[in-house]
């Protein structure tokens, strides 16, 4: 079987398929469509993103439902609003010749009354996010008691996002005898549990190897010091002037921060994460789809399943917490038979994660060096030259040329070219002749991270801190590291060299985080007691701390001692801009010799600005 006709689809669908331009069914469509058309069965389908799953359930659903009835017969649950809208549009396009079809999207962040009104007009198919769906059921704004087909799309992601209870609740309002079709890119335990719980003898189909990532994607990693992460990102972008990419960060905060920094540096970038309003997210997605934005910085959740073709690069600014997530990320590129590159920026402490990912994707990464500054200048120059060469001449320009020509009568072609290109070249040259990034070699790192981050060598770019909690407060290094990561909302490797003593401890972060750490712990209370953090002179073992006053250890000591300096700091603007401006009497002398503030990546002044497309 190799054509849509042979799959058994009706004329209305075939006509729409021809309009859309699909020529042959994809693997998952080949396998799923005939089964779903012929049988009333439950189904579990495992296939990577970008394999055409929407049509694999959309075609059969459209063919099987009764368009003459206004009853809701199909329910599709998907994890995010973006996906929900995407699926809705897709189903509408497939069903454009199905007379009487009404597909309604139900998702949070938009008017529930509008959505209820749409449903009331008679929606044969509802595409919904679990949260809003549950809400509408509770308020009796939808009736799904006569559903015949339910689809759990991106099931693994829905479970990842904690929708298990919602899904259970929603399905409890649907009839027993309906069919459930579950689509997922991966098959973790939770997904098979769901399958067991809600499905009867499901037919299982798998496209490609389970969890295998797409073939057209090559995987590269760049090993740099953690502080060079952003600089490396810029170089990767600059070395690929035509880049059209998704950049993945681990947290919403980092996503926002990186996007802002890129924009400030003149890149055409945008952020996509859950803290943005729906409207903002829609706008960003629209610009990205239109390729007005070259770099979309996104969290995993927000970018999941988003289907934008022609993405040239996926950049893992930080690796995901779960190696399986990597396959979703890299699956954003290399779609529709095109090739793509998935790049990972790693620091030494994370490099062994690459190995776990290689096992999952069953492909090797290529270790690459961050491009050299001068090589980037050349790439940019040639890209500009090619663009100029490709530029179509606008005849309207002729009438303005006279005065321009006059200006250049004494200039040779050679000089003119040099002048013209120097503008662009100088911008990059000035920046890259100063900017340095050290490519890190792996061998030294193979002694590796012991999990607590110990074993790092001390480094002028790190900041060592003293914190007034220790073993007697119930901490060991792991607990303290977890605590710091959590309250500071930092990534897994941002806090390291955690060294816990009896009544106090030491830890280290990248210098760029110093201001934030100190500002955060100004007035910070935990379990009703003040936690005090200061920059420490001690960068090594953390065994001694000069001039440390005894008796101040523990939460209680901190509270008594520091109340006055705290209010002082607050009155001078709350947040110290010298890192550690709070006067801590004798305590701070050990950190006086350190520069308090470091240049973060965003503060290097004459970085090149990119012209927007
Ligand atoms: P998935 O849900 O598996 O991630 P989608 O259903 O979003 O994949 O489809 C990915 C892209 O491939 C979409 O742009 C879709 O229109 C396109 N597509 C789906 N089926 C076909 C096909 N048979 N031929 C060509 N393109 C297809
Ligand atoms: Mg999909």
UniProtKB/TrEMBL annotation:
Family matches, as InterPro entries: DbpA/CsdA_RNA-bd_dom (IPR005580), DEAD/DEAH_box_helicase_dom (IPR011545), DEAD/DEAH_RhlB (IPR044742), DEAD_box_RNA_helicase (IPR050079), Helicase_ATP-bd (IPR014001), Helicase_C-like (IPR001650), Nucleotide-bd_a/b_plait_sf (IPR012677), P-loop_NTPase (IPR027417)
Motif segment (Q motif): 2-30
Compositional bias ranges of the Basic and acidic residues kind: 559-613
The protein's name: DEAD/DEAH box helicase
Region (Disordered), start-end ranges: 535-613
An example Gene Ontology CC term for this record: cytosol
Keywords: ATP-binding, Helicase, Hydrolase, Nucleotide-binding
Domain Helicase C-terminal: 235-378
PANTHER family according to UniProt: ATP-DEPENDENT RNA HELICASE RHLE, ATP-DEPENDENT RNA HELICASE RHLE-RELATED
KW Transmembrane (keyword) present: no
Keyword Nucleotide-binding: yes
GO molecular function annotations of the record: ATP binding; hydrolase activity; nucleic acid binding; RNA helicase activity
Domain of life: Bacteria
Domain called DEAD-box RNA helicase Q: residue spans: 2-30
Ranges of residues in domain Helicase ATP-binding: 34-205
SMART domains: DEXDc, HELICc
Entry similarity comment: Belongs to the DEAD box helicase family.
Pfam families cross-referenced by the UniProt entry: DbpA, DEAD, Helicase_C
């Amino acid at each position: 079987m190799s054509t849509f006709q042979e799959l058994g689809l009706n004329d209305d669908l075939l006509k729409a398929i021809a309009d859309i331009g699909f020529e042959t069914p994809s693997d998952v469509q080949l396998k799923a469509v005939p089964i779903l058309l012929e049988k009333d069965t439950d189904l579990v389908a495992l296939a990577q993103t970008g394999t055409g799953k929407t049509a694999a359930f959309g075609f059969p659903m459209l063919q099987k439902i009764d368009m003459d009835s206004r009853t809701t017969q199909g329910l599709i649950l998907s994890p995010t609003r973006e996906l929900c809208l995407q699926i809705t549009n897709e189903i509408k396009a497939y069903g454009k010749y199905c007379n009487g079809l009404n597909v309604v999207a139900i998702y949070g962040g938009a008017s529930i009354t509008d959505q209820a009104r749409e449903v009331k007009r008679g929606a044969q198919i509802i595409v919904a996010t679990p949260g809003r769906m549950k809400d509408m059921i509770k308020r009796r704004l939808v009736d799904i008691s006569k559903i015949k087909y339910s689809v759990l799309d991106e099931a693994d992601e829905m479970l990842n996002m904690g929708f298990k209870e919602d899904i259970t609740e929603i399905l409890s309002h649907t009839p027993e005898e309906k069919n459930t079709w579950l689509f997922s890119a991966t098959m973790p335990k939770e997904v098979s549990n769901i399958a067991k719980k809600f499905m009867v003898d499901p037919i299982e189909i798998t496209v490609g190897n389970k969890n295998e990532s797409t073939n057209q994607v090559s995987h590269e990693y760049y090993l740099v010091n953690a502080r060079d992460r952003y600089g490396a990102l810029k170089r990767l972008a600059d070395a690929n002037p035509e880049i059209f990419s998704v950049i993945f960060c681990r947290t919403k905060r980092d996503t926002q921060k990186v996007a802002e920094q890129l924009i400030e540096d003149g890149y055409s970038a945008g952020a996509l994460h859950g803290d943005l309003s729906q409207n903002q997210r829609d706008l960003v997605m629209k610009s990205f789809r239109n390729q007005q934005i070259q770099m979309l910085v996104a969290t995993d959740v927000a970018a999941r399943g988003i289907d934008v073709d022609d993405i040239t690069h996926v950049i893992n600014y930080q690796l995901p917490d779960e190696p399986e997530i990597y396959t979703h990320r890299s699956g954003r590129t290399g779609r529709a038979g095109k090739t793509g590159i998935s790049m990972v920026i790693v620091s030494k402490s994370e490099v062994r994660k690459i190995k776990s990912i290689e096992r999952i994707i069953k492909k090797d990464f290529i270790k690459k060096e961050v491009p050299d500054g001068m090589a980037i200048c050349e790439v940019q120059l040639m890209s500009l030259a090619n663009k100029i060469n490709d530029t179509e001449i606008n005849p309207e320009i002729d009438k303005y040329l006279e005065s321009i020509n006059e200006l250049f009568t004494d200039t040779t072609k050679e000089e003119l070219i040099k002048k013209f290109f120097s503008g662009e070249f100088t911008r990059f040259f000035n920046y890259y002749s100063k900017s340095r990034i050290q490519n890190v070699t792996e061998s030294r790192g193979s002694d590796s991270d012991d999990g607590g981050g110990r074993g790092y060598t001390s480094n002028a770019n790190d900041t060592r801190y003293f914190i007034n909690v220790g073993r007697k407060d119930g901490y060991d290094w792991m607990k303290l590291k977890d605590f710091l990561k959590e309250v500071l909302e930092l990534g897994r490797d941002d806090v390291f060299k955690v060294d816990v003593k009896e009544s106090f401890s030491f830890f280290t972060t990248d210098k760029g985080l110093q201001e934030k750490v100190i500002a955060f712990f100004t007035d910070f209370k935990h379990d009703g007691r003040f936690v005090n953090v200061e920059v420490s002179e001690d960068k090594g073992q953390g065994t001694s701390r000069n001039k440390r006053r005894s008796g101040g250890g523990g939460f209680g000591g901190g509270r008594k001692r520091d109340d006055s300096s705290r209010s002082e700091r607050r009155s001078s603007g709350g947040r110290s801009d010298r890192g550690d401006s709070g006067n801590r009497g004798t305590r701070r002398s050990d950190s006086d010799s350190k520069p308090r503030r470091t240049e973060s990546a965003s503060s290097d002044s004459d970085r090149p600005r990119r012209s927007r497309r």
